[in-house]
Known about the structure:
Helix content is 45%, strand content 10%.
Amino acid sequence: MTETVVSEVLSEVRGQVGFITLNRPRALNALSLGMVRDLMGILLAWQNDARVLAVAIRGSNKEGPFGAFCAGGDIRFLHQAGSQGNPLIEDFFTEEYALNHLIHNYAKPYIAFMDGIVMGGGMGISQGATLRVVTERTKMAMPETAIGLFPDVGGGYFLSRCPGRVGEWLALTGDTIGAGDAIAYQLADGCLPSDQQAAVWEVLGVQSFADGKAVCDYVATKFVASDARDSSARAQIDQYFSLPTVGDIIAALEAAEGDWARATAATLRKRSPLMLHVVLEQIRRARTMGLADDLRMERDMVRHCFFLRPGQSETVEGIRALAVDKDHAPQWNPGRIEDVTPEVVAPFFASPWPAHAHPLAHLS
């Protein structure tokens, strides 16, 4: 018996559109280094292909297309590589961030069908899209503080550009939002009913379009209204997450009345105390940065997450507790938000490379 190896990234050109399907459903399409390389190769080829007016990307579930977009990077690989000092971990982040940059700056319209789970690395390959399509099944988050990491893949850039202090809230808590909030927070452009996705996808491959913009315009005609959370929640987000430090935020939340403040404080208490401080600094620095500079900063940060404190990586420990041993009892160091000092946060923002030798020096 010879086993058929099925590609984890499927691509084809039909009509005037290039179609990509992430095809690793058992892992919720979590990105491997091979998938990152395949996506980069496909997009670079289509950028100069006159037949292709626009690109459409979707995920797949165990039953077929759609249903899950992408749950992030392959964290089991990151745990194994981070524990063993495997140099492929460096290649993964360098190439993933270069792919994120390409998508944000792609020469043709890129349409992301963000059905189901869209988290972490899934945000990295969708937030730069010309048209970000969500459905009533979308579950969107940047949950990295739960594994002792930070919202990377350009998370500093796109979260810091959400209205008010929504970026700080999403980055620190890792809370999940649906379609209406994603649109209200400027992380999506429109909602398409999930049962209409297949029909829209098929039409893109057979209809004749004047140009790439016309492809996007056609998809947008199918958008429907979607409810966001009420304005009082937004006011609370801005009130607490505009405070100067993580210590100030947690103290104010814990002193407040009300279910939302209590639940939010409880969530923060479960996250890596060190990475909460690092992430607040990341989002606030990124607010005044362009994408390329933000990705270079995040590339510096991720090197430090795995190699700054040998033998005590918050990220390796966080992944161990959540995804490997699944004991959900990470031994964070420091253990409490109040014990994190500026002296342990600052090194995350010092680049290990001189500017000319930075692995992402070529991004502009």
